[in-house]
Amino acid sequence: MKRPENVNLSLLTYVCFTFLGYFVIGLSLSVLPIFINKSLGFSLVVAGLVISLQYVSTFFLRAYSGKIIDSRGPKPAVLYSMLGFSLTGIFLIMAYYFKASPYLSLTFLIITRLLTGCAEGLVGASPINWAIMSVGEEHTAKIISYNGVASYGALAIGASLGIIIEHDFSLYGIGILSIIMGIAGFLYARTKKNVTNPHTQEAQSFWKVLRKVAPFGACLALGGLGFASISTFITLYYNYFHWNNGALCLSVFGGLFVVGRLVFSNVIKNYGGIRVAIACLLVETVGLLIIAFGTNPEIALVGAGVTGLGFSLIFPALGVVAIKSVPASNQGSALAGYGLFIDLSLGVAGPLIGGVADVYGMVYIFPFSAGMVFIGLGLAYLLKKKSDLQI
User: Fold this and answer.
1) pTM summary value
2) Helices then strands (H, E): number in the chain?
3) How many alpha carbons lie under 13 Å from residue 6 in its C-beta half-sphere?
4) CA–CA distance, 81 with 60 (Å, rounded to integer)
5) I want to staple 85 with a disulfide (CB 3.0 to 4.6 A). Which of 13, 95, 182, 330 is the partner?
């Protein structure tokens, strides 16, 4: 058996692929809504739709990714994802090159977002399963937590760095760095040994697995709307109030998210996934309300931090329960299916919250998001009551 420090080191060699992928995603996350709205002249709804296209393609690639993992192992999915991230950089450069032709530029951005979504769908569950198969199922909660630290930490770093790069080197710089990161991830993944699932003879269909994890996924989706409102619209929200450093909210969100994952890494094991999810959804709701009723950027930063802390353990808390609801042979499909719901959440959030902003005003997006997360809290409570009755 590996010692704890060796397990932690081993996990890092797998979740680094998650970090690379979400770093590339984060690079353009803060700059594209403003580029689409201000430089190309399209509405907030269009900006939200284009950003959300990433999550639509991610949604459809999750099932394919789960099938690859269960039948061929996670390595091929990771390799394909890294190539996809490199391609996004190429089309991002094309979008900026043709910015004088708004519709042509928007077309390239649509392709960029679709490719980003495909790459995210392939990398979403692959490093987690690769690590679980390599170090053991007993470390599942830790693996999911570490993977989340990698993903949201990378988003926070990438978003802040993307603002700086865009200011000094335009979207060209972001595109070139995206290409480099994808190639680096591809080359490193090729050096690692693939692992396959030994229980394939017991495998169920993806859609049957999806039905089993759906209740937990629906709860996750509602919780994901809080993150989506910050990641997609916080820079425009700051711009609306003439505040500076909107991307800092993403960094604060990501920082407190990481703190939550690291400091409270054992609470899922000690208190159970459903109980932890209920507490986290409550904290996330409070954080969004702080942003909604904040009167200055400092209060908004506090709200973003509280939201990040609340959102930090929702995915692993519900994910551990979701995985246990299916046979070991469908572990890859279970994580992929469960992850579909965060993609659905983020995909719907762009046009939905953008529509709220266009119809009712920018000030209503965070009260609306808080209400959706609160509904998720109610659903988590119902799942707990159902679980208690089955004991």
Assistant:
1) 0.73
2) 15, 0
3) 6
4) 14
5) 182
HSE-CB at 87 with a 13 A cutoff on CA atoms is 18
Distance CA 74, CA 196 (A): 8
d(CA 325, CA 332): 13
Structural contact between residues 165 and 174, judged by C-beta atoms closer than 8 angstroms: yes
Cα atoms in the Cβ-side hemisphere of radius 13 Å centred on 136: 9
pLDDT (tens, 9 = 90+) of the chain, 391 residues, equals: 455 557 778 888 999 999 999 999 989 887 888 888 888 888 878 887 888 788 778 878 877 887 788 788 889 999 999 999 999 999 999 999 999 999 999 999 999 999 999 999 898 778 888 888 888 777 777 788 788 788 877 887 888 899 889 888 888 999 999 999 999 999 999 999 988 766 555 556 677 778 888 889 999 999 999 888 888 788 888 888 888 877 788 788 878 888 888 888 778 878 888 899 999 999 999 999 999 998 888 999 999 999 999 998 898 888 888 887 777 667 777 777 887 788 778 778 878 888 888 888 889 999 999 999 999 999 999 988 876 655 4
